[in-house]
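Notes taken during the Thursday session

The instructor put the following on the board and asked us to keep it in front of us for the whole hour. The protein is Thiol-disulfide oxidoreductase. We were told not to look anything up and to reason only from what is written here. First, the residues (232 in total):
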Amino acid sequence: MKHILLIIALLLLPLSLFSQGDSIFFSNAIKINFKKYKKDSALAYRKGDTERGKFLFDSLVDHRLAGTTFDDYTFKKYGGGKIRLSSVEKPIVLITYASWCVPAPGEIPAINKLAQQYGKDVKFIVLFWNRRQDMRKAARKFNGRITVCYAHESYKNDAPIVASMKHTLGFPTSFYLDENLKVIDIRRDSKCLAPKKSNYNKGYAMNYDSVREGLSQLLIDRQVAKEHLAGN
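Then, after some discussion, the predicted structure tokens were revealed:
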């Protein structure tokens, strides 16, 4: 117990260097003591201690990254053009993938279903860590409610995006942002299962429930904010 409290204290301490009124961006917050987190997390997974690995990730999100302001990145859209996050003007679910990472059975259909259900109120963006020509097949699996984008080290202006997102938390990772780009939650929603047909329904349900849980918190926070403004 003392060890767990020490880890949380170390995560919280760097943020105390900022005054309460200051805004801290996600890309700055993720750098604080990140080498230690990465070392401890890698050690946990090497030992097969997934519970500790999850604890370290959740602690990082809950005590350092949640509440920060996500950087106003501009992504290249697979279908052409670009999208700047601040132009969306509604909550965002941003999911990162790579074409060489095989999704769990039912994972993409679950995301497509959620985008159909909540697409009017929430913007769904899928970001691939690929060159455009390398993610064509994967991009076509997502429905029209989802804006599919890509970023890669070889493209001009993508280096900050890759450094703060891909090279830190890895993928697949989901970012839940409110309409002001405040980080509400960051989750590893993907629930990996062996690629067997019998696992499709289970994979669909697990991934649907996981993303919907993060989405629900995003929408609840939005409603609370609206009620607060109406009360004033």
